[in-house]
Amino acid sequence: MTRSPDPDFDPAGHDTTPQRWFEDFRIGERYPLPGRTVTEAHFAAFQTLSGDNHPIHYDRPFCRAHGHPDLLAHGLQVLCFTAAGAGTFPAEVGEALIAFLEQSSRFLAPVYPGDTLYPALTVAELVPQRRTGVLVMTSTVHNRDGLRVLDGRQRYLLRRRPPA
Predict the structure, then answer these.
(1) Whole-prediction pTM value?
(2) CA angle 114, 105, 155 (to 5 degrees)
(3) Cβ contact 134:124 at 8 Å
(4) Could you give all domains of the chain from N- to C-terminal order, each with its CATH number?
Protein backbone atom coordinates (compact mmCIF):
# COMPACT_ATOMS: atom_id res chain seq x y z
CA MET A 1 0.00 0.00 0.00
CA THR A 2 1.43 3.35 -1.05
CA ARG A 3 0.78 6.27 1.23
CA SER A 4 0.67 9.90 0.17
CA PRO A 5 1.71 12.86 2.29
CA ASP A 6 -1.12 14.64 4.04
CA PRO A 7 -1.78 17.81 1.96
CA ASP A 8 -3.02 19.63 5.09
CA PHE A 9 0.24 19.17 6.99
CA ASP A 10 2.97 21.83 6.71
CA PRO A 11 6.09 21.31 8.87
CA ALA A 12 6.67 25.09 8.85
CA GLY A 13 3.39 25.52 10.71
CA HIS A 14 4.48 23.14 13.46
CA ASP A 15 6.57 25.68 15.39
CA THR A 16 5.61 25.71 19.05
CA THR A 17 7.04 29.17 19.74
CA PRO A 18 6.02 32.31 17.85
CA GLN A 19 8.81 34.19 16.07
CA ARG A 20 10.08 37.28 17.93
CA TRP A 21 12.15 40.14 16.53
CA PHE A 22 14.33 42.68 18.31
CA GLU A 23 11.37 45.05 18.90
CA ASP A 24 9.38 42.32 20.64
CA PHE A 25 11.67 42.08 23.68
CA ARG A 26 11.33 44.07 26.89
CA ILE A 27 13.86 44.80 29.61
CA GLY A 28 13.28 42.54 32.58
CA GLU A 29 12.05 39.49 30.65
CA ARG A 30 13.47 36.44 32.39
CA TYR A 31 14.49 33.10 30.90
CA PRO A 32 14.99 30.49 33.63
CA LEU A 33 17.05 27.56 32.36
CA PRO A 34 16.70 24.01 33.66
CA GLY A 35 18.21 23.44 37.09
CA ARG A 36 20.60 20.54 37.37
CA THR A 37 22.72 18.81 39.94
CA VAL A 38 26.43 18.79 39.12
CA THR A 39 27.91 15.30 39.32
CA GLU A 40 31.35 13.76 39.08
CA ALA A 41 30.31 12.59 35.60
CA HIS A 42 29.99 16.27 34.59
CA PHE A 43 33.50 16.89 35.95
CA ALA A 44 34.92 13.95 33.97
CA ALA A 45 33.12 14.98 30.77
CA PHE A 46 34.34 18.56 31.11
CA GLN A 47 37.90 17.36 31.73
CA THR A 48 37.72 15.33 28.53
CA LEU A 49 36.24 18.18 26.53
CA SER A 50 38.45 20.99 27.86
CA GLY A 51 41.70 19.12 28.39
CA ASP A 52 41.99 20.91 31.75
CA ASN A 53 43.84 18.52 34.02
CA HIS A 54 44.50 20.83 36.96
CA PRO A 55 44.26 18.75 40.14
CA ILE A 56 41.88 21.23 41.85
CA HIS A 57 39.15 19.77 39.62
CA TYR A 58 40.02 16.05 39.81
CA ASP A 59 42.20 15.20 42.85
CA ARG A 60 40.41 15.15 46.24
CA PRO A 61 43.55 15.06 48.43
CA PHE A 62 44.92 18.07 46.49
CA CYS A 63 41.59 19.92 46.98
CA ARG A 64 41.54 19.26 50.73
CA ALA A 65 45.17 20.36 51.04
CA HIS A 66 44.13 23.65 49.41
CA GLY A 67 41.07 24.31 51.59
CA HIS A 68 38.28 22.81 49.51
CA PRO A 69 36.02 20.08 50.94
CA ASP A 70 35.69 18.36 47.56
CA LEU A 71 36.48 18.68 43.87
CA LEU A 72 36.04 22.23 42.58
CA ALA A 73 34.05 22.77 39.40
CA HIS A 74 35.86 24.59 36.62
CA GLY A 75 34.41 28.08 36.10
CA LEU A 76 33.81 27.43 32.40
CA GLN A 77 31.91 24.29 33.35
CA VAL A 78 29.53 26.39 35.45
CA LEU A 79 29.33 28.99 32.69
CA CYS A 80 28.15 26.30 30.24
CA PHE A 81 24.93 25.97 32.22
CA THR A 82 23.97 29.49 31.08
CA ALA A 83 23.80 28.44 27.41
CA ALA A 84 20.68 30.06 25.99
CA GLY A 85 20.08 26.92 23.92
CA ALA A 86 18.93 25.14 27.08
CA GLY A 87 15.83 27.36 27.21
CA THR A 88 13.20 28.85 24.91
CA PHE A 89 15.12 31.95 23.76
CA PRO A 90 16.67 30.37 20.60
CA ALA A 91 13.28 29.06 19.46
CA GLU A 92 11.77 32.51 19.98
CA VAL A 93 14.41 34.41 18.01
CA GLY A 94 14.57 31.84 15.19
CA GLU A 95 15.04 33.87 12.01
CA ALA A 96 15.93 37.03 13.95
CA LEU A 97 19.17 35.69 15.40
CA ILE A 98 22.25 36.83 13.51
CA ALA A 99 25.01 36.18 16.06
CA PHE A 100 25.98 35.49 19.64
CA LEU A 101 28.41 38.38 19.98
CA GLU A 102 30.06 37.97 23.36
CA GLN A 103 29.79 36.89 26.95
CA SER A 104 31.54 37.77 30.16
CA SER A 105 31.33 36.13 33.56
CA ARG A 106 32.42 36.49 37.16
CA PHE A 107 32.79 33.37 39.27
CA LEU A 108 31.57 34.28 42.74
CA ALA A 109 31.52 31.10 44.82
CA PRO A 110 32.79 27.52 44.53
CA VAL A 111 30.70 24.73 43.05
CA TYR A 112 31.21 21.14 44.20
CA PRO A 113 29.81 17.75 43.11
CA GLY A 114 26.25 17.42 44.38
CA ASP A 115 25.47 21.14 44.13
CA THR A 116 22.22 21.90 42.34
CA LEU A 117 22.49 24.94 40.09
CA TYR A 118 19.75 27.23 38.79
CA PRO A 119 20.81 29.33 35.78
CA ALA A 120 18.77 32.19 34.32
CA LEU A 121 19.04 34.88 31.66
CA THR A 122 17.32 38.26 31.95
CA VAL A 123 16.97 40.93 29.26
CA ALA A 124 18.97 43.88 30.62
CA GLU A 125 19.48 46.21 27.68
CA LEU A 126 18.15 46.75 24.16
CA VAL A 127 20.39 48.70 21.79
CA PRO A 128 18.53 49.50 18.56
CA GLN A 129 20.48 49.90 15.35
CA ARG A 130 19.30 50.65 11.84
CA ARG A 131 18.30 47.14 10.70
CA THR A 132 19.38 45.19 13.73
CA GLY A 133 19.59 45.50 17.48
CA VAL A 134 21.79 44.20 20.25
CA LEU A 135 19.96 42.36 23.01
CA VAL A 136 21.98 42.20 26.22
CA MET A 137 21.12 39.62 28.88
CA THR A 138 22.45 39.20 32.37
CA SER A 139 23.33 35.62 33.22
CA THR A 140 23.13 34.27 36.74
CA VAL A 141 23.62 30.91 38.39
CA HIS A 142 22.43 30.29 41.95
CA ASN A 143 22.90 27.16 44.04
CA ARG A 144 20.10 25.51 46.01
CA ASP A 145 20.95 27.65 49.05
CA GLY A 146 20.24 30.79 47.00
CA LEU A 147 23.92 31.79 46.82
CA ARG A 148 24.86 33.38 43.49
CA VAL A 149 27.85 31.44 42.15
CA LEU A 150 28.12 33.20 38.75
CA ASP A 151 26.98 36.38 37.13
CA GLY A 152 27.69 37.79 33.72
CA ARG A 153 26.39 39.26 30.48
CA GLN A 154 25.62 37.88 27.05
CA ARG A 155 25.09 39.94 23.89
CA TYR A 156 23.10 38.84 20.85
CA LEU A 157 22.71 40.55 17.48
CA LEU A 158 19.10 40.30 16.27
CA ARG A 159 17.29 41.40 13.14
CA ARG A 160 14.57 43.99 13.46
CA ARG A 161 11.09 43.09 12.27
CA PRO A 162 10.98 43.03 8.45
CA PRO A 163 8.68 45.58 6.80
CA ALA A 164 5.14 44.31 6.21
Answers:
(1) 0.87
(2) 120
(3) no
(4) 19-159 (3.10.129.10)
